[in-house]
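Example record

The entry below shows one chain as it appears in the dataset: sequence first, then structure tokens.
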Amino acid sequence: MEVTRELQKDKLNKKGLAPIQLTFYWEGKRLRLASGERYQPEHWNPKTSLVRDKPGAYAEQRNLVLQHWTEAAHNAHRDAAVRGQRLTAPQMEAEIRRCYLLLAGDTDKQPDAPGLPLLDPPAPDLLTTMQQWIEHQQSKVSLRSGKPLEKKTISALLRTRRELEEFSEQARYPLTFAGMNHEFYAKFQRYVLTTRGHSSTP
């Protein structure tokens, strides 16, 4: 899932405010939605696709709205993948709006998403979900700096995932969310202390 944000300067209203258009790309499909936000063009940073931190711009609140739309899209796409579904544009729109309302805390206005096939969800794969989560972290932008997370942070997450995968293969211990219990902790701790030679668990 890729999300872009565009300030539509050609659609200024009488107050000189331009709307933000959101475009979502996934699996060869495209969906455009209005964010519901309007900004002064001089407050918009085209490099980060966020509001500049200027007096009167209310950047933190407005960027949070945009961040919620981006996160909602990633959540909708991830949830559909876990369910084994390939959503059409109308279905994806309904899912994105539902996820957005959850992030915004407005659960009373959650829209229904008719037409989604009811499937028995497969057992969640921990490593796959972790990889998707890390990829999502790579796409996040700091609201303070307007920059992506530092590479060393992402590298540390990838290293943790790699160690879990190596542990699973060597110990022949399947990793599932349900299996994150005391038995897993004891086995993984033993693996880290003996096989990996670390002084403590990561």
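Notes for this example: The chain has two domains: 2-104, 126-196. The longest helix spans residues 59-82.
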